[in-house]
Amino acid sequence: MSHHSSLFDSYSIRRVRPPKNKIGTSAKHDSAISHVMGTATYVDDIAKPQGTLHLAVGKSNHAHARVLNMDLSAVRDADGVVDVLSFKDLPAQTDIGAVFDGEPLMVDELTEYVGQTLFVVVATSHRAAKKAALKAVVEYEPLPAVLSIDKALEQELYVRPSHFMKRGDAATALENAPVRIEGHIHMRGQEHFYLEGQVSYVVPCDDGGLEVYTSSQHPSEVQQLVAEVTDLPFHAVNTVVRRMGGGFGGKETQAAAWACLCGIVAKRHNVPVSMRLDRQDDMVVTGKRHEFANRYEVGLDESGRILGVDMQLAGLCGYSPDLSDAIVDRAMFHCDNAYYYPAAHVAGHRCKTHTVSNTAYRGFGGPQGLMTAEYMMDHIAYTLGQDPLQVRLANLYQNGQSTHYGQTIEHFDLATIMSKLAKDSDYETRRQQIIKANQQAAAEGSDKRLGIALTPVKFGISFTVQTLNQAGALVHIYTDGSIHLNHGGTEMGQGLYIKIAQIVANEFDVDLDTVKVSATRTDKVPNTSPTAASSGTDINGKAAQNACLSIKARIVEFAAEHFEVAQEAIRFEQNHVYIGDKETLTFAEMIQLAYQNRISLSSTGYYKTPKIFYDRSKAWGRPFFYFALGAACAEVEIDTLTGEYQVLRCDVLHDAGQSINPAIDIGQIEGGFVQGMGWLTAEELIWDSTGKLASNSPANYKIPTAHDLPKQWSVKLYDRKNSEQTIYNSKAVGEPPFMLAASVWCAINNAVASLGDYQKNPELTMPATPEAVLKSVMRMQGTPWEVDAEVDTDTVVSLIKGAEENSDLYNDKVMPQDVRHAKDIDPAEVEGRQVDDQPEATEHPNVAGARGPAHSE
Questions:
Q1: Which residues, listed in sequence order, are joined to residue 137 by a DSSP beta bridge?
Q2: Where is the composition biased (Basic and acidic residues) (predicted)?
């Protein structure tokens, strides 16, 4: 029995040649064509049968309050409503905390953030559920709310105990240091803004189990939580994740709640159930990157070399622990970035506030620690009147030194990377030109100033929770020579599937098109770790390789006996299997022969990361298998009159080890860099004084666009194998590039510093929006930001009164109807016109390319 598919070349025409798209080649993303064509199937694209129910949540509008009464009668009577569930209707487990308890699926008595789920509406359509949820009448007893890091620190309000890392005697080092500098930096959070919002679809099975389709980075956690809230054993719940439209950490823990609600309703009514969050709901009810307020005191010698550091890192965690313990830990691990602290004391606080629980985000706390170090380096340089790059180079780790948490520095090429980048980007010449250009601008009264910065990245690769550093895979070879692969990693657009397919193809030395990767499923590979911590390729790739090696060993053992040759003489090369000098078979022929002789052609694979450990009680160990390294040099221009800026040029040199797929890796570097630039320059999360998210839609929360890219941009890979035994000596490339964007922020800081002749460190916040840049410029110039003017008390009073009458009106927003003397004016050229200039287009619109209504609407 033999079959050759037309989907790829048959073995009769697959001549002896190097396999196509093996590792090290830039194979395109496995879903690239379907992404561009719009045919890739996401959870909400799954065709749903008639009778599918849809969910919407009723949300709290108080940051901290006791719920006294909920009248849901109008909700139940609304059109299309089938059922309404509140806390008392939950059938089993009610807490879905990922690591620690404290995250109720629905509010029982106490609401602790605006947007917390009070009840769930079950209806025949998404629209009907949404409309019905608005009809609830809820009575609250408001309680005092803590909404800032400062208030939480003042009240010692934490979601988890504080943690401390110590090395040497930092207090004595600071006391004896010739130069001491103190500083603080505040950085806001960041919205994930994945293109596909939170969504889940659950189908009840005929055996009483549940099939869960979810957009989640952690299928096993979703499986387990859905099982717990529905009172089912884990094996009765199967989670399926084919792809996500972006995740960035926002779907590591916070995809679970929606799957749990769908699971409860699906089991209760025995029908398929779907739930998706609209963009504005998604932004309000899901967690963000942690906001941090960090302080440092550093002691230096006269040359600018660090002698001791005392740091306090305080993260705004929200109302519950979520992953905050590990996130603040990672901020503490990375508060050195690439620099050696001979003596250090680092405190990490997990501040509880009455806001949505913040969660994982690309970098997982690392960027907040790293940016503290980079701001401190700028502070040292401008205080001592030195070039910031030289201060950075002088304080870099050397091989053999250890971090403030005890990990020995090995294979540390960062000085080489930075020096090479400085040379390739002509840093020193450009820096001198920029200094002269700024001096000339000052002399001529120009508002433009230039800035340049070259910053490094050292990012630890591994989950800091040791248990998660494991992975499994499943490989089948069919009798036509095609290969099926399944593993525990999830695909969120980052190219994980294609890279692991390349690994499998490489192990058998066959063309990539013979390998197919199927959706991540908990019934194929169990107990999976989340696709996070940049570990996706490292651990799942090794697991897939180990599965291939098991199958390969069986085939080699059989062929050696069958053809009476030594095992060492059997080679898998160029789509063929060479049996010494006796025989050459195509790969498919070899597989067919093995099958006919009853050789197993299927295997699981497993991998656990070696070497790592961390004793948290001593704050000492080796939490990371290795460090990913990189550097970026950015040049910017700012307008000192408006605070506006543009990135003129950026050069990146990043260490991806021996790259498995250079195109995918460079794409990750570019995407991570732009996302990091968004966090540091444009994306501003704002809550009002009542704890409501003001930046709650794309209209008032700005992510980077194509117009924000550097005008001149070069991204190159540093060509060096990873010295640790990772898969093909590659290095992780998911999170580390995010922090390359520090170069842009530091370049803006450099441009502002030019106004003080580089003798004073600017007070620049993160994100460095044009407003923040202008504030920093005015502080540097000694100009007050506040404008002296009489306050129009009548308008203020009317606004406050209007806000009290209309809870949807934020008291710090001036709405059009509140502007005095405003009236509607029709310009003469359109007065009296009621229709478009092209009435035929109105009557017969071209909708050929328009997307139809969502399912069941």
A1: 71
A2: 818-836
